[in-house]
Design goal:
single chain; 664 residues; alpha/beta; Chitobiase, domain 2; TIM Barrel; Four Helix Bundle (Hemerythrin (Met), subunit A); 3 domains; seven-stranded mixed beta sheet; 21 helices; 15 strands
């Protein structure tokens, strides 16, 4: 992360704070936390102030073993050493998230511009606590750059987290000073009027969402409802009851002109949206590939390019408004029809996205020029990967952050998708979540400061070592297999590839694989030895270790598969003894992959419902089956037809993955 000039760099003597404050000054001396030193609030303090005081009390108790009482006092001048919580004047929006922390030898004073600001003051003060009960004296005056700072988590591509996991995620977001969580829903909600929609997917229900919404509100996190309303509706449109609503036989986009489409969406909105106190909702409407090509073709031609989309979005806006919500939509289709941007209702919020590092982020300027509110949406680069592509994610987050500042964005929503079964594990995304929090609060900072803050805040690592952050960076930098694949990691595709077609395996290169194997073995051992550093996040340690082992397996499998494919081209190149040796290796790999999937299932169930784990299991079982079949062919000396190398391109990737997901 390149560094933005700020006086915050003058406080390197202080413990690391994440996000890095806008204005921080280290001072001489320290404030000693005494056992009975009170946490003081005003007699007129509201419930949110008392909640922040209890949060501080719990943090000090947990980290330093000191049980401080919370007391209300009208006067503080004769109390002796104490911590005081209160408020200062503030305006609406971003200002309410601002806060100050003043630490002197006699007193620590935490003031928030609003309830959320006071909570953030508490979180910052807790990071100033060292290994002793001495807090370094400092002056901090801080506020975020953006009003909206959040995470969008996909809960529709095969994985639905437990309520416990979602509450824990909300707590983490609050620690990071993020104030929004969006759960991406296509079909994973139990609709009472339409029970078939979420059946078999461990869907969320109204009671769960309301409990989560209450928990999030208490942590100053806005739970924003999100429900697909145009494209990406294949889960619903493949059900016989709703098939007639599909725009085309592709079964991807709902037909806006079919009378039943509006009736269905109204039913879904009226049941789903009341579970959220947020005044916003995301109707999505991205990637409607077949819109206007089927049932709605005549209306589309009548309205002209982009007209059908605009008409549907306007109607969705009205449907959401009846439920008291402001509508958000993704910006991809809007960009595809620039001549119609001026017709977009001014109260829509546009969410602009792209997830590769190289991109024209300044395209959001057109939204600002048309007085449209918008947020930028980078990504964690965790999907289609065994472990996130960390370098790509950091560049993407920083690129969007810069554009957001230049063009006046509402904020940033960091997206965590789960394409093709949501193989990626949640703890692997923590680093990108923290990077999004830093970028949306105060912009880019020095890598060392970020790494130290991340490791200390989420894992309790003392000092400024940043050891855990470096593990994320090092493992997240290893994806090379000799070929590139859009929007994903080659190692993930190699993990699931079957030897018969070898679509990805045939493109892998031995030198790149051997380099990655060496690097993976090194970082895998580092993760293993760092187990004690993950005492507060044991599940995350297991997830990182699994990701390293799965990545190593993908490399070993591919190296062996390349030798198998060489034999397919030249059957006489291996004698019976050599064939047996390679066959034994392939059988051992099949056994290893089976064990990895068993291990993955346990990790999956640590944080999630069963959901649709069978999608991932089916992909892995195809790989295992192909390894065993190859071993059998080697034993018989029955070389199959040689595989032909086909260039890696998006259509081929999708076809290969769909084959791996097919039953049988």
């Amino acid at each position: 992360m390149p560094t933005r000039t700020s006086n915050r760099t003058a406080a390197k003597s202080l413990p690391a704070i994440l996000p890095v404050p806008q204005n921080v000054e280290a001072r001489d001396g320290h404030f000693a936390i005494e056992r009975r030193a009170p946490i003081v609030v005003a007699p007129s303090a509201c419930e949110s102030t008392w909640a922040s005081a209890r949060r501080l009390q719990a943090l000090i108790q947990r980290s330093r073993g000191a049980a401080l009482p919370i007391e209300a006092h009208l006067r503080r001048d004769d109390l002796g050493p104490h911590i005081t919580l209160g408020h200062r004047s503030a305006g609406p929006g971003i200002d309410a998230d601002g806060y100050t922390v003043q630490v002197t030898p006699d007193c620590a004073e935490l003031r928030g511009a609003g309830p959320s600001g006071l909570r953030y003051a508490v979180e910052t003060f807790s990071q100033l606590l060292g290994r002793t009960r001495k807090v370094p004296c400092a002056s901090i005056d801080d506020r975020p750059d953006f009003a909206l700072r959040g995470v969008m988590l996909d809960v529709s591509r095969g994985k639905v987290p437990t309520l416990e996991t979602l509450k824990g995620l909300v707590d983490m977001l609050a620690q990071l000073k993020l104030n929004a969580l969006m759960l991406y829903v296509e079909h994973t909600f139990r609709f009472r009027r339409h029970p078939l929609i979420g059946k078999g997917a461990s869907p969320l229900d109204a009671e769960t969402l309301r409990e989560l919404d209450d928990h999030a509100a208490a942590q100053h996190v806005e739970l924003i409802p999100c429900l697909q309303s145009l494209g990406h509706m294949d889960h619903i449109l493949t059900l016989p009851r709703y098939r007639e609503l599909a725009e085309t036989e592709m079964g991807w986009t709902i037909a806006p002109t079919h009378p039943g489409s509006r009736e269905l969406i109204e039913d879904l909105y009226d049941e789903f949206l009341p579970n959220f106190r947020s005044r916003r909702m995301n109707a999505n409407c991205d990637e409607p590939w077949d819109l206007g090509l089927g049932q709605s073709k005549e209306r589309s031609e009548e309205l002209g390019p982009g007209g059908l989309y605009l008409e549907h979005v306007r109607w969705l806006r009205e449907a959401a408004e009846r439920n008291g919500k402001q509508t958000m939509i993704w910006g991809d289709v809007v960009h595809a029809h620039p001549k119609r941007i001026a017709e977009i209702p001014k109260d829509l919020v546009l969410l602009d996205w792209w997830y590769e590092a190289e991109f024209d982020y300044d395209r959001v300027a057109v939204f600002g020029a048309n007085d449209l509110e918008f947020a930028v949406c980078p990504g964690t680069s965790s999907w289609n990967s065994l472990f996130p592509r960390v370098d790509n994610s950091l560049a993407n987050i920083a690129g969007w952050g810069g554009a957001a500042r230049r063009h006046g964005a509402l904020g940033m929503l960091n997206t965590d998708w789960g394409d093709f079964g949501h193989y990626n594990l949640l703890g692997n995304s923590w680093f990108a979540y923290a990077a999004g929090a830093q970028q949306s609060w105060s912009g880019s900072c020095e890598d060392a400061a970020f790494d130290a803050g991340f490791s200390a805040l989420l894992f309790g690592e003392s000092g400024r070592r940043g050891r855990i952050a470096r593990l994320y960076r090092e493992l997240g930098a290893i994806h090379d297999a000799g070929f590139d694949v859009f929007n994903g990691s080659p190692l993930q595709y190699l993990f699931f590839d079957d030897l018969e077609s070898s679509y990805f395996i045939a493109n892998a290169r031995k030198p790149a694989l051997e380099r990655s194997r060496k690097r993976l073995a090194k970082v895998r051992n580092q993760i293993d030895r760092a187990r004690d550093c993950f005492a507060r996040e044991k599940a995350t340690w297991r997830e990182l270790l699994y990701a390293a082992d799965a990545s190593l397996f993908a490399v070993e499998k591919t190296l062996a598969a390349r030798r198998y494919n060489d034999w397919r081209r030249r059957p006489k190149s291996l004698n019976a003894r050599a064939r047996k040796k390679l066959g034994d290796e392939l059988r051992a790999l099949a056994k290893t992959q089976t064990a990895l999937v068993t291990r993955l299932r346990k990790l999956w169930l640590d944080r999630n419902e069963t959901s649709n784990f069978e999608m991932t299991q089916r992909r892995a079982e195809r790989s295992v089956k192909s390894l065993r079949a190859a071993a059998t062919r080697l034993a018989k000396g029955d070389a199959p037809k040689p595989v032909e190398t086909a260039a890696i391109e998006p259509k081929g990737v999708v076809e290969a993955v769909r084959r791996s997901l097919a039953p049988g």
